[in-house]
Amino acid sequence: MTSSFVKKNAAKIIISVMAIIWLYPIALIAINSFKPYNEIINAFLSLPTSISFDMYVETWVDFEFLILFRNTILYTLVTVTMIGVFAPMAAYKLARLKSHLSNLVFLIIILPMMVPFQTYMITLTKFMGNIGLLGTRQGYIFANIGLCMPLAVFMIHGFVKNIPIELEESAYIDGASKLRSYIQITLPLLKPILITVLVIDTLAVWNDVIVNILILGGKPATQNIQNALYSKFSAMQSDWEHALPGLMISTIPNIIFFVFMQKHIVGGITAGAVKG
Amino acid sequence: MAISLIWRFLLGPGFTYLYEWTGIEIFGISWLGDPGYAMISIILVSVWQNMGFFMIIYIAGFMAIPKSLLEASSIDGATKFKRFLKVKLPLLMPSITICIFYSLTFGLKLFDIILVLTKGGPGNATRTVAYDIYNDAFLSNRYGLATAKSLVFFAVVLIVTVLQLRYFKNMEVEY
Questions:
Q1: N or C: which terminal CB in chain B sees fewer CB atoms within 10 Å?
Q2: Which of B35, B37, B17, B40 has the alpha carbon at shortest distance from B27?
Q3: Is-contact A60 A252, C-beta < 8 A?
Q4: Tens digit of pLDDT for each residue in A17-55?
Q5: pTM metric for this prediction
Q6: Following CA atoms B108, B109, B113, B119 in sequence, which dihedral angle do they give, to the nearest 10 degrees?
Q7: A237 DSSP 8-state letter
Q8: Which chain B residue is nearest to residue A274, measuring alpha carbons?
Q9: How far is residue A181's CA from residue A174's CA, in Å, rounded to a whole number?
Q10: Which residues of chain B lie closer than 8 angstroms to A32, CB-CB?
Q11: ipTM of the prediction
Q12: Do B2 and A229 touch (CB under 8 A)?
């Protein structure tokens, strides 16, 4: 009985065991984040003797997580809103206009997708310095919008091409203005791809480190969570009893977002995979 | 970022504890401090991090294989292994192309993990081009050198990825 059960589900069992091993490092971090320092060092694998949230509270205050969350949410929201408003507009117009100029403009917009970020990070930083936006929130948000725009326009552009133009034409005949037909007819049809794009960009901005380091530097008032984690960790090399709760707190939003947006994240990855 | 920090903890105090507890040689090695092993740990961490991403692409690839072809092959008497080798694998080529493309670019642009785990060290053992450019430009203030390097880097990435895409596109089958 048992042997036939094992035989039947061997693949499933192996996969489950592998998945548990794969996630075990994260579980270890979660377990250790509740322990005081000497327990982390002396009893690394065992469960904590008592669960207390003291370290979490201390870390929340110490890391100034309130400011960090406010910063990160602000950056993400503004960037994603701007992408959500302007990327479909640009992509829509560029896809509908069938001229050489629009092809050229489209090419210029999506060109940064082929260039590695490290190639233009120096010029980006210098440019931000020249126009006086280095070290400001606006500068960081502008940079993020610019960095997210190519992929967004590219993906929406491909989607617009498959939307039948007849729908808009019938709207024109019924007397709708161009703007109105865009907002009421085209935009709702773009919703699936738009959600995918916005999910990708939310993840990109939320998890961004390097642009934040380059443009905002190490100032705690304007850092985002990831940058703060990096700089705090560098400062306190072995203060693991504060570092681990900090790590956990910063990861929780990602996990929540992933659980709710799983379908769209998977969709985003496969949609992004088609582009190659 | 969090991934790299998790591994900095595990490879540091975590492995030290495991070594003292079990005495197994593997945990006693200084995984980030030894030039030979630092690269291996960087590679393992980045594999660990990206595995799920690639698996999703492959799963989507498998789902896209038409059922009729699989049925036809089993009617023709193909074993499971043969069916995988001769039917599924060739039809999975587009996914393989994309995955290799991504892993190539991820590898060439590797930065976050290096920044947190080793900072290019020990010595220059794990210094990637991306980290080198960052280091030259923003830590040593040699902007000219870094800009030149970044252009060469761009050219290399472009050539490598174009060649890879060309080569693998030729291996894809039509049906």
A1: C
A2: B17
A3: no
A4: 888 888 888 888 888 878 777 777 666 777 777 777 777
A5: 0.82
A6: 90
A7: T
A8: B98
A9: 10
A10: 9
A11: 0.76
A12: yes
